[in-house]
Amino acid sequence: MWNRLKMAASVLQRCFGGVKVIHKCGSHRFIARRCLLSAAYTDTKLWEAREKDHQNLAQLAALMDKTYERNFPVSSLTISQFVDNILSIEEVDQAVYYLYKFRHSPNCWYLRDWTVHSWVRQCLRYGARDKALHTLKNKVQFGMFPDEFTFNLIIDSFIKDNDFKGACSVVEEVMLQESFEQLTTQILSLYALSNYLATKPVMNVSEERAMGAALLIAGLKQDNSIGLSSQLLGNALLGKVEIANGIRAVFRGMPLTWTPGYLGRALSVMERVAANPDDCKLSKDVLDRLEGLLHNLSSDSDSSGEDEMAEEEKKIEEEVEEEDMAEREKLPFYSSRFKELSGQLQSSGKVDPSPLHVLVSSLVQQSLASAEGPDVEQYQSKLEEWEAERQQLISREKVSRKKAEEERQARQAAKEAAQQG
What we know:
Layout: H1 2-16, E1 19-24, E2 27-32, H2 39-42, H3 45-48, H4 57-69, H5 76-84, H6 89-103, H7 113-125, H8 129-137, H9 139-142, H10 148-160, H11 164-176, H12 183-198, H13 205-219, H14 225-245, H15 248-251, H16 262-275, E3 282-283, H17 284-303, H18 305-310, H19 312-318, H20 322-328, H21 331-347, E4 351-352, H22 356-420
Parallel strand pairs: 3-4
Antiparallel strand pairs: 1-2
Helix pairs in contact: 4-5, 5-6, 5-7, 7-8, 7-10, 10-11, 10-12, 11-12, 11-13, 12-13, 12-22, 13-14, 14-16, 14-17, 14-22, 16-21, 17-21
């Protein structure tokens, strides 16, 4: 009897364990946790249906080693064959080495898109997602610049494991490539970012900058409450970095404008929403974050005022930019303007009580499934293009090898004839 009760409890847990309750506007609603991307999107059948080009990895490794020793370039086809034929996590580790070597060879510009895609799939397949992330974060050293479909696969993999910090690390790379064109990528990225922020993480300056830039750029692609709330929060985080460290700390190495005033831009989002007659609103959670951020920045500025007066010469030595000082002096205005705009938003019903991650979860339910279709169709077309290009490379390499062998035989024959003469 006890065993049957345990079995029943186990079944119920599998059926309902993924259901969570979200409180919204005084009522409760149930949202089933799901793997964000559908099985059709993440299915490997299309990828595995390609014509196989079975190779012995030991022989390929020996060929590449010998080629590099002779200071000759390894072909993009060879490194592609190596990645495609990975069968274990140990071979994933070997591939990291050869991908690095290829990136630092004369053929570095010719790492094929399908090789990058295959690499990510192989890492996910053999439990080496950390290796995929390592090569993405060190993209200059490994040449890893995935397309959005490939990005989506690895983001979704992190989300499935509730590793939102890892997912945000991938989203940062999407942001740096400015690859938020596909709706699926926008939704997955905003889902990862908002859920990670919901955990209230303690972030350093670099993390706040990356988070702010990703929220801002992804939010600009969404013309709705989620997009506007994301833009507001993104500008707020970047404004915090700007006030504390100067504008150069914001835009260096980022696809961002170098014009000062990110906190001002956050307030401009509030102004647009307040003046807009449509149904767009701003998340109360995001507004509360901006309010707390302004309060903390103002408090830090006030409490350090005496120290700054006493260390005026030190400030001069640090060569603080005039525009950065001017931006810091605007903090009292920003705070008062925020209070004014908050009152306008409240009075006009432009504040949504839902946290940002709840709003994004609603977007997932409403839009993600329909957004997957175009991606899958585009992926199918891309696979056909990749396969045609791969077959062309195989044929070209066969011709080159045949020609090289004929030249070798001709040299050998000439050498033998000279010896006989």
